[in-house]
Structure formats: structure tokens, C-alpha cells
Amino acid sequence: MPRPAGEPLHYEWRGTFTNEEVNALHAEAFDHRLVDDDWNGQLDRLSLGWVIACDDQGLVGFVNIIWDGGVHAFVEDTSVALRSRRQGIGERLIAVAREHSAAAGCEWLHVDFDDDLRNFYFDACGFVPTNAGLIKLR
Q1: Which residue ranges form the domains of the chain, and what is each CATH number?
Q2: Are the C-beta atoms of 76 and 101 separated by less than 8 Å?
């Protein structure tokens, strides 16, 4: 979904995208092989919403917000294109997601992440540390 040259970055809650765009961005952001996942189908079934960020070259950012149908929302798959990092895109994706999650009646926004992202989520995005548990299933 390229934007006209010179148009500023655009953020959109529940914005449209192709599966190919998100698959490519996710593979780049998480350093894995390119897959053929059906993001549109998954998000329609499981998500409260998502935020996309696009520039004049296409999709540069994405975050998925899943929920329990009540007061808890969860951040998943925060992705920013390598060419667009360190420009505040991830922080803005989370801010838009936070705003829309609250508007949907959610009271809590949860996230879990690798240690190297502590500064991003705690300092830039305003999350606070909490106790949590994890069981590896495979």
C-alpha cells in the first residue's frame, strides 16, 4: 500500500494490508524465514485490533492487539522495518494501540518481551514491570 512520495508516515487502527506485506515485515523484524501466514484471517478471528504504519514505500510498522473479550489486551508481534527503526514508529504503534484498547473498554494492556527490549517497553512506551509466569510447552 505505497503512499504518494513526500506524504508523511501514516498510522491506522485496523488498517488494511496484504498478508505478503506483514509476512515480509515480520520475517525481517524477527529474523526468520519468510512464511505464508494468513494474517488477515488470524486477526479477524482473534484480535481486538492492530495498528499499521506506512510511508511512501509501504508498510513499515505493525502491532497486533489480542484480547480476552473483556478487560485485558495483549501486545503481540510489534514489528518495525529495519530501514525505519529509531524514528519513534514502534512507540507510536503502541500509543495508538493503547488508545484504541482503552476505547474498547480494556483496563489492562499486557506485553512480554526479550530483555533487550526493556528500555523500549518500559521507558519509551510506559509499561511497568510486573511478576509473570511462563511454561515452555515445546
Answers
A1: 10-124 (3.40.630.30)
A2: no
Which has the closest alpha carbon to 132: 70, 59, 74? 74
Beta bridge partners of 13: 51
Instruction: Compute the distance between CA of residue 128 and CA of residue 2 in angstroms, rounded to an integer.
Output: 36
Quote the pLDDT of residue 4. 45
Place of cell 489492562: 108
Q: What is the pLDDT of residue 41?
A: 96
Gap between the Cα atoms of 76 and 100, Å rounded: 15
Residue 12, Cα to own-chain centre: how many angstroms?
11
The C-alpha cell that represents 65 in the structure block: 492487539
Q: What angle do CA 60, 66, 72 make, to 5 degrees?
A: 130
Q: In what order do the strands lie in the sheet with 108-110?
A: 10-13, 47-55, 58-67, 72-80, 108-110
- C-beta neighbour count of 8 within 10 angstroms: 7
Whole-structure pTM value: 0.90
